[in-house]
Each structure stands twice: as C-alpha cells, then as structure tokens.
Amino acid sequence: MNRRSRIVVAALLVTFWAAAAVPATTAAVRALADRVTADRLDRPVDEAVLALEAERRQSVTGLPILELTAQRGRTDDAAGRLRQADRSWLDRLTTSASDRTADALLDRMESLTELRASVDAGRLDRRQIVSAYTEVIDPSGAAEPAAGSGGLPALSRSREILAEEDALLAAVSGGRGPTVADRIRLTRLAGARGALFAAAGTALPEEATRRHREVAGSQAMVRLHRFEDDLAASPDGIPAPAVWSPTFNELNTALWDLQDSAAREAADEATPRAVTATVWAGTIAGVGFVALLGLLVTTLRRRAATVTPAAPVPVPASRHQPDGLLRDLDRRNQGLLHRQLRLLDTLARRAGDEENAADLRRAGNLGARLRRNVEKGIVLTGGAPDRRWERLVPMAEVLRDAAAEISDHQRVVPAEVEAAYLAGTAVTDLIHLLAELMENAASFAPADSDIMVSGHHDPEGYLIAVSDVGPGMTDDDLVTGHEVMAAPEPPPGGTWWGLWAAGRFAARQDMAVELYNGPGGGLVAAVLVPSSLVTGRLEIDAELQAVAE
C-alpha cells in the first residue's frame, strides 16, 4: 500500500470512529447528566410548587396576615433552595428537561413580588388571585404533557390541578358561592384532572402502576368524583369546606406519595441505562483509538495493511406496538368525554341566563366533535368504541346525532325522513359515516347554504341521501372517490381521508355509499343501509319479541 492509500485509509478510519464515538459519547453524557440533574432538581422543584400552592390557598381564605407572611417566607426559602440547586457545571454540557423546568419556574416566580402587592392592595378578587398563582405554578393549565414524556408529568399535572380545584373552591365558598362560570371552570378542571390521571396510569413503572390503580379505586377518589358530579349538576348552593376539604387533602397526599415513589422507581430503572450508555461509549471510543493508533504505527513502519470494513450491526426492530395502548387511552378519553357531555347538558338545561346556556351548548358541540375524533381513531386503528346501543334507535335521532358532530351543524336541514329504526350495533358507525359526508358537504358548499338530508325505505334496505349545492365532482374525482372508499389503506396526503374513513365505517356494517352529481347541481352522497339493520315496524317487532319470549 503506497503512502497516498495509507492516508486515505487513515482518514476513513478517523471518520468512521468519530461517526460512532461522538453520538455514543453524546448520548452517554446526556443520559448521565439527565440522571444527575433529576436527582438534584426534582425535589427542590416539587417543594417550590407545593409552597406556591399553599400560598395560593392562604391568599384566598382570608387568614391572618401573619400566617400569610410566614407562608410567603417559606415560599421564598423554597425558591432560594431551587435557585442554589439549579447552579451546576453540568449545564455547560447539556440541558435536561429538569433544567428547563427549574429555569422556567424560577423565571415565573420573579413576578411574585408584584402579585403579592396586588393581593395586599385588594386589586385582585379571589378568583383572579387563584388564576394569577396558577400562572406562576404552571401556565400550561389543563394541556396534556408532550407526547412521549412519560407518566410522571401527567401525574404531576393531575395533582396540581386537584390543588387548583381546592383553591378555587376555597375562594368561592364565601359570599354567594360559585357562579355559573365558576362551576364551568371547576367542571373543566375536573375533566382535565381525570384525563391526566388516567393517562398517567398507562405510562408509569410497574410498581407505581399498581399503586395508581389503588388510588384510582380508593374511597377518597370515589367521594371526589361524586362531589364533582354534584357540584356540576347543582345550579346553586355553596359547597361547605367540611364536605370537600378532607377529601382533597387526603387525595393530595396520596398523589404526592404516588408521584414521589414513581419518580424513585423511574430513576432506579434509568440508572442501568445510563451506565450501559457510558460503558458503550467508552468501548467505542477505546476500540477506535486503539485501532487508529495501530494504523499509525503500521504506517510509520511502512507495512501494508488490509482494512476490512466492519459489518454493520443490525439494529433490532422496535417491539413496541403502540396501537393497543393508543386504543386504551382513546377509550379512557371517550368515557371522560361522555361524562363531561352529560354534565354540560345538565348545566345547559338548568342555566337561567340564555347567553350562558348558548355557551354551554357550544361547549357541548365541541365535546361531541372531540368524541367523534376519539371514536374515529379507535375504529380506524382496529378497535371498537365503547358507545353502543342495546335497542333500536329512530333513524331521525341518528341523523340528528350525526349533524351534531360537525362544526356547521346548524346548516344540516332534514328533508323527508321516513320513520325507521336502526339496530343499536350499527348506530355509532352510521353516525360517524354520515358525519364525514355532512362535513364534506359543508366544506365544499357555500357557507350560507343548507345541507339537505333525506331518508326513505328502499327494496334493499333504507336509503339516506346527503345533498349540497356546491360545485360537485368531476367524473375522474367520482371514480377516485369510490376507489378511496373501497381501499383498505388510507391514500397518501390528507385530501381524501374523510371519504376513506367513510368507507371504513360503511364496510364495518356492509353499507354501500354512492357519490353522484345532483340533477340541479351539487353533490349527493347516498348511503344504503341493508335491510338486516333497519326496520320500520318497531311496535310489531316488539310484540313478536314479547310473544317469542
């Protein structure tokens, strides 16, 4: 091997070594730094949050100024300990999630001086005080933690929202009690807390998952659910602190213990990974260095060397299949949505102010649309939604529920709808199928036009037509639309996904969907429900069933 070839081989070896060693070393440093930083910061962050929650509650309960001043001092001490723990040479190497959390919390706590002055001067009412302190504790509110962040952030947010509910109840229990807006806010907090707590239970370590189930089934959690339901359904009345305060305190302690033990368990599981990453990085760097040194010695001695490229190490495919987990999460969210929609409906019926009632109806529509997306996700990933009917359902009710699941539901106008009854097993799929077709019609037709829906008996079943006055479709687009609805896999891009979803819902119940341009313009989507799923003689069928029994 001549001198030029040896130089090329050396350069390639250095490149390969760097390509392997740098990522491995970086990953090892990051894993080690994350582990060390979490040990250093997580406890001071939690102590600062707990101190802020205690100060928030005392600021709205009218305690003596000496007690409030003492709590403010404890909050400042917690902030000082967090500030001291946040200083580390590791920050120069990498910034972990714990670093970012601590820095953001310290930045928000800078506003405490101004907030306390506003509280002392009476410039904020009690509800505003709760909101202002909540912005300092965590401005993300009821938002879900970032995907992939694990169950601990969701568990922590669930406990913080429970403390926010407690503070808000303490703020509104005096005087005339909670307003309608307060009850709506408490209902939303309760829904967010429940969703976050359920999501946390699917991503915690093994032992923490078992303890999570114990807390979820505890008597304190049952009492909390009952109190939240009663509060949302009651149009008036002042919640007595003796009723809710002990339950909130008990659950807050249980959630704190669960969060603490889960953090320790997660840290114990992360330690072997950090050690493995460090050993792997050292192995790659050491072997590469030895190989490079050997090549240099060989080059100096001018001996020929044959370089055999190492075979690439196969990377095992991921064994994690998230579909089942996602379907389980969707079902949990579906149950929470059902519960929230029932509460919103109760509030809307009892609201004395028309404007508040209208807002509640709009909130209910948003919930119905969100439920549609959740159930759609369950079906399209191979599952079956929990919402089922055990009875025959009037077709007019099915059409009305389908219209309620789109944003422009007020544009859907029923034309001639012959009386018929649909089998309960097909109700959810037909609702979602019709909602997809109605939404397509509303999207392409003029915004001020109506979407006409009709239904009548057919020799082969029951025929439902969704008609609009939009531009219709070209012959090529009609062919493509039918092909998309018949395809088992979604098409690339998002243009045809609505029709593909409609086809999946139709296929589940052996329904047929046909698209054609109307004689007066616009598009008509016709759905043929097979005769095995529909009847127009509910009374006769009921009598025959009674005789058979």
List the helices and strands and how they pair.
Elements: H1 3-60, H2 65-85, H3 97-109, H4 112-121, H5 126-137, H6 151-172, H7 180-200, H8 206-216, H9 219-233, H10 241-300, H11 323-350, H12 354-380, E1 393-394, H13 395-404, E2 412-417, E3 421-422, H14 427-444, E4 451-458, E5 461-467, H15 475-486, H16 497-508, E6 512-517, E7 523-530, E8 534-535, H17 538-548
Parallel strand pairs: 2-4
Antiparallel strand pairs: 1-3, 3-8, 4-5, 5-7, 6-7
Helix pairs in contact: 1-2, 1-3, 1-5, 1-6, 1-10, 5-6, 6-7, 6-10, 7-9, 7-11, 8-10, 9-10, 11-12, 13-14, 14-16, 15-16
Notes on the structure:
By secondary structure, this protein is an alpha+beta fold. The chain has helices at 3-60, 65-85, 97-109, 112-121, 126-137, 151-172, 180-200, 206-216, 219-233, 241-300, 323-350, 354-380, 395-404, 427-444, 475-486, 497-508, 538-548, and strands spanning 393-394, 412-417, 421-422, 451-458, 461-467, 512-517, 523-530, 534-535. Strands 2-4-5-7-6 form a 5-stranded mixed sheet. A hairpin with a 2-residue loop joins strand 4 and strand 5 (461-467). Helix 1 packs antiparallel against helix 2 (65-85), helix 1 (3-60) packs antiparallel against helix 5 (126-137) and helix 8 runs antiparallel to helix 10. The longest helix is centred in the middle third of the chain and has 60 residues, at 241-300. It is globular. The model is unreliable at 302-329 (pLDDT under 50). Pfam families: HATPase_c, NIT. This is histidine kinase. It catalyses: ATP + protein L-histidine = ADP + protein N-phospho-L-histidine. The chain crosses the membrane at residues 277-297.
